[in-house]
Specification:
2 domains; single chain; flat; mainly alpha; Tetracycline Repressor, domain 2; Four Helix Bundle (Hemerythrin (Met), subunit A)
Length: 309
Amino acid sequence: MTETVLSTQRDSAISAPIPGVGDFVQLLKPRVMSLVVFTGFVGLVIAPGELHPVLAIVAILCIAVGSGAAGAINMWYDRDIDAIMERTANRPIPAGRVAPDDALVFGGLLSLFSVALLGLATNWVAGGLLAAAILFYVFVYTIWLKRRTPQNIVIGGAAGAFPPLIGWAAVTGDVAAMPLVLFAIIFFWTPPHFWALALFRSGDYGRAGIPMLPVVAGRRATKAQMLAYTLLLLPLTVSPYFLGATGMIYAAGAALLGVLFIVSAVLVWIEPDAASDRRAKQMFGFSILYLFLLFALLLADLAVNIGRL
């Protein structure tokens, strides 16, 4: 009997797929990471002061690695529900391509590496903010909120709002009003962005027992809150102009984008609940473009103002 068991274990070990580099890259959630890196980069570029180009590259790399590390630990913890949901069933852990323990060690080591390197290369304010972002995403959002409350993404969304603060702090060593406004913009952008996804993936969340707002409060209540958040975003996104931190290029562009975001939320609101969620899918896609263009406007505005000096 013992020999049979040992033989079965050996055969299983031999037949188990060896994870490739691409599997570990997937653990880092590269699509999510790209927007995180960009907002962190913008925070670094618009911050007053100078940072050596090599150190700036290191800082952006650390933001990317820290974000990816948090994503890997998130996948480790959520492997049970990821296996149930159609959208996530092919992730490396539920698909059996990466062992759970390997993913946890991978995420943990990258977390420590990114925080330590950022602190040593720039300053410990930036390093501390990166550590706070990772810890918040893992312990507050993933472990505490995600499976317990329909407000999970509202509070937990703060984790994704840290990058501009980190980028700014890497240059200045402190936190000021402007990066806090950028933090708030991403914080208030996250609920309508994620609820748009939750609307057309509500069946997935329901099967996995995750209390996303459409599952718990219904579609109509979710659409109303999405619209409310887009309305709040409009004055918030133009506030950097009134703080004297940007010029009219950013202000005008932010106002236009804000109106378009509101329109997309209105279109979701008026779409019948029995429809195909076409508007929700469109809003989800546009929300990503919206945030990218909003932060790109900060760079464009800065470039024009520098050119006028």
